[in-house]
Amino acid sequence: MDISFATKAPFIIFANVLLLHLIGYFAQQYFSVAIVWLVVGIIDAFFGFRCGLYIRNIFKDELTGLYNRSFLVLFLKKVLLEVRAKKTSISLLMVDIDEFKQVNDTYGHLVGDIVLRQIGAILQKSIRKTDCVVRWGGEEFAVVLPVTDRDEASGIAERLRQNVAGFDFNSSPVILKLTVSIGAVSLCDSVEQDYLIRQADKALYQAKQTKNMVAFV
Q1: What GO molecular-function term can you cite, just one (predicted)?
Q2: For residues 75 and 144, is the Cβ–Cβ distance under 8 A?
Q3: What is the DSSP string of 47-62?
């Protein structure tokens, strides 16, 4: 994506839309009004679609294809509103790849990138349609589980852990066996986003002391 567009997007979009409609306004003096505005409408729709793709990509992690931290903030805000309104539960999992630095140091960052993509794919395939997995940063991922209590979250977290542990990471020329540590928290009613994340981080810290385990707070 062009950096000049990324930094000046509001002005570029405004200028293009204004110019397009000015052209349409003057063109209708020489061509059929219906045809002119049909063409303008088609161009508008295409331009809107391209802008939509751009906005979506803002919330995507380029390496893994998962949503990113910025998207998680918006998603959590929406889910927490529903939790308060319906008095249901929400669970959050923080997932960290064990000994990931050793992978980078031993095999290089290209292999590390392959591992991150594969981990992301495993997590994505292991959750429900209503859940959301994002790359939180580095070798850490976050999984939001709406309307999910502690027992359900425990089962999902354990499934994620087992799916990673049982996977052969084919990062040519080597096949690696890796594990993840998962910190989990389940809360209900009036819970704030920052508090939810802090609690999940605290649980992850506990899990990392042993590694390859799920810890709850």
Answers
A1: diguanylate cyclase activity
A2: yes
A3: HHHHHHHHHHHHTB-T
Scanning the structure block, which residue is given the tokens 């349609």?
Answer: 129
Rounded to 5°, angle at Cα 203 from 59 and 110:
50
Q: At residue 67, what is the residue type?
A: Y
Residue 208 class from Cβ within 10 Å (0-12 exposed, 13-18 middle, 19+ buried)? middle
Tell me the per-residue pLDDT of 67-105, one tens digit each, with 9 for 90 and over.
Answer: 999 999 999 999 999 888 888 999 999 999 999 999 999
Integer Cα distance of 21 and 7 in angstroms: 24
Four-point Cα dihedral 59, 63, 66, 69, nearest 10: -50
> 128: helix, coil or strand?
coil
State both tokens at 120: 């992301």
For β-strands 174-176 and 180-188, DSSP reports them as: unpaired
**Candidate list 139, 140, 152, 158, residue with the active-site label:** 139
Is 139 known to be catalytic?
Answer: yes
The residue type of 140 is E
pTM of the model: 0.80
